[in-house]
Amino acid sequence: MTTVKDIARIIAARHGLTNAEAEIFMQMIVEVINDGLLQDRQVKIKGFGTFKLQTVKERTSVNVNTGEKVVIREHDKVSFTPDNVMKDIINKPFAHFETVAVD
């Protein structure tokens, strides 16, 4: 799994920054995305993707450890949809695969 620190190290190496400067940059990016989600509920980054804040309605579930019914309150979650450019980059190594129906 790649972490924010890993990405910061890559940015630092590629652009002549210190690791500390690159980590601050990454923290600022995350902060801007968070602020955008809180303000507009959506952040689009061209060539990368769209972050959306979606409301999940209240529902009843079961605590698997006790069997007790619990209510999960309404809350927001963040979803990410990659831009087509990003999808193409990610899927390119698998483009030669064919779809097979599974019964």
Plain-language structure description:
The chain is extended, with a radius of gyration of 20 Å. The strands form two sheets. It has a three-stranded antiparallel β-sheet. A two-stranded antiparallel ribbon has the order 3-4. By secondary structure, it is α+β, with helices and mostly antiparallel strands. A hairpin with a 6-residue loop joins strand 3 and strand 4. The protein contains three helices and five strands; from the N terminus they run H-H-E-E-E-E-E-H. Helix 1 packs across helix 2. The protein is 41% helix and 27% strand. The mean pLDDT is 94.
Any chance you could write out the topology, listing elements then pairs?
Layout: H1 4-15, H2 19-40, E1 42-45, E2 49-56, E3 59-62, E4 69-72, E5 75-82, H3 84-91
Antiparallel strand pairs: 1-2, 2-5, 3-4
Keywords:
alpha+beta, 103 residues, 27% strand, three-stranded antiparallel β-sheet, two-stranded antiparallel ribbon, 5 strands
The helix content, as a percent range, equals: 40-55%
Secondary-structure-based class equals alpha+beta
Radius of gyration: 20 Å
**Low-confidence segments, ≥5 residues, pLDDT <50?**
none
Largest sheet: 3 strands, antiparallel
Helical stretch count? 3
Number of strands: 5
Beta-strand fraction estimate: 25-35%
In oligomeric terms, what are we looking at?
single chain
Inertia-based shape: extended
